[in-house]
Amino acid sequence: MKIARYQAHDHADDIVSALVNNGVVVVETLLEEAVVAGLNTDLRAEFDREGHLYQNSFNGHKTLRVGGLAKYSDHFATLLMHPIVLAVADAVLKPHCEVYQVGSTTAIEILPGEAAQVLHADDTCYPSHLLPFEAQISALWALDDFTEENGATRVVPKECELTDPEQVGDEHIVQAVMPAGSVVLYLGSTLHGGGANLSGGARKAVVNTYCLGWLRQEENQYLTLTREDVSAQPEAVRRMLGFQAHGPYLGVWPEDPDGLWFES
Ligand SMILES: O=C(O)CCC(=O)C(=O)O
């Protein structure tokens, strides 16, 4: 079993087909080295300051996490709005909503000695069994080379036809081994989890999820970001962060029914 792999120059339709058919796809080396280096620099202080606050049995006790990424790095928007990710979101989510939006924005540093994370589907934050279509996608960007030893994300491709993590054996799991700057894209229903870090170094990533615009966001952007944080973003980024209405009636703000809440 393998994860289909593509390059930046490949056609977005092929990437979308691979994702829809098998629940996961890797696109290699999409980010310039300067963007990866910039994110690693910008996020370092936050990993060290607040990374431990997210530690628990699900996230791991040797893993650092940072949320609300829009406020920590100017490079974040490059990942959030990457055309290949948006092409995938257009294909998977847009048929089921007026606009899609970010679900969560998280940086993850898996430290040496961390065990493999429990396999899970990200869309379990919704009653997704009620929906006959995908409610979200995830784009997990490698900020270090991802190897089998340092905890490359473990994924259960759809060809296994397994939805219950209890039924998954090692033979069903593939790891998203990829160079820094690459992205692994997976559906909200795809079983996956962080890998065990058996190496001597850290494995860092940024994972952004995108959900249907009529769903509540997993990470509460309205409380995570200040008005100033939001105002500092370009309009397209503000909207993707959820500062927009969904159609004419959902999420409206009386003074600004078009959702340009922080324009002035
Ligand atoms: O770090 C990873 O590779 C995956 C993390 C993940 O799936 C999660 O925390 O939901």
How are the elements arranged and paired?
Layout: E1 5-7, H1 12-22, E2 24-28, H2 33-50, E3 63-67, H3 76-80, H4 83-92, E4 100-110, E5 136-142, E6 154-155, E7 174-175, E8 183-187, E9 192-193, E10 203-212, H5 221-224, H6 227-231, H7 235-240
Parallel strand pairs: 1-2
Antiparallel strand pairs: 2-8, 3-4, 4-10, 5-8, 5-10, 6-7, 6-9
Helix pairs in contact: 1-4
Residues 108, 117, 122, 140, 153, 192-194, 205 line the site of 2-oxoglutaric acid.
Text of the CATH class: Mainly Beta
**In the CATH scheme, what's the topology name?**
Jelly Rolls
Query: Which residue ranges are poorly predicted, with pLDDT under 50 across at least 5 consecutive positions?
Result: none
| Proportion of residues in helical segments | 10-25%
Query: Strand order within the widest sheet?
Result: 1-2-8-5-10-4-3
- How far apart lie the N and C ends? 52 Å
Helical element count? 7
Secondary-structure content class:
alpha+beta
The CATH H-level superfamily is q2cbj1_9rhob like domain
Bound molecules: 2-oxoglutaric acid
* Radius of gyration computed on alpha carbons: 18 Å
What do you see in this structure?
The chain has 264 residues and is an alpha+beta fold. It has one domain: Sandwich (Jelly Rolls), CATH 2.60.120.620. Helix content is 22%, strand content 20%. It is built from 7 helices and 10 strands. The strands form 2 sheets. Strands 1-2-8-5-10-4-3 form a 7-stranded mixed β-sheet. Helix 1 (12-22) packs across helix 4. The protein is globular. The model has no long low-confidence stretch (mean pLDDT 94). 2-oxoglutaric acid (AKG) binds at residues 108, 117, 122, 140, 153, 192-194, 205.
